[in-house]
Every structure is written in C-alpha cells, then in structure tokens.
Amino acid sequence: MNDEAAAPFIDPESDYPCCWFCPALRLPRTGFLVADRPSRDWPFDAADGFRYTVEDRTPVCVHPGKVGLEPDRTAPAYTIAPLAPAADPEPVRRRRWWLPFAGPAHTTTPRR
Q: Taking the model in full, what pTM does it have?
C-alpha cells in the first residue's frame, strides 16, 4: 500500500496566479473539478475554503485560466423569472394635517 499523498496539482511556489484557497494548491488533479465560473451549484464552504458540488461534495476550482485547465463543468445560466404585473394600487387619501384623525381607534363617545 502506498501511503504517500499525491502532490498538489500546482506547486504553491510556482508562478500560477491561483487563489490561496484553490483546491489545485492542495489536491492532485484527480481530486477536484474545474468549473467555468462560480455558481450556486458549487457553493463556497467557509469552513475549509473550497467550493463543493452540491451532489457529492467534490471540490471545485472556478478559475480555469488561473490553473491552466479547460473547465469540465459549466455553470448553468440562471434567469430571473419576470414579475407578475402589479395590481392597481388604491389611491392614497391625503388627510389635512389640521383635521383630527377620525378613525375607528380614535372615536369619541358623547359624554352624559
């Protein structure tokens, strides 16, 4: 059995402009995927600094140009659904500031 860990894909002392938390600096090439950009499908985990796939928590690098690889994952294009047309708002009734409020909470009953 081989107990030696595989070397990281990119040597931290190299000239590649990788992010300091890139999985390419810590894992061999078979240990991470390369995506074309960040996406909700591989969210960032602040606990260890990796982005992971949602399905099986495989680490994902999202800067293929920085590591010199072609992306093997493509982020889906999310679109915002159009909003439903708004209903006509009720007209605003302005109250004169000098008139007392005569709403149900402030009604007065005649004194006897």
A: 0.57
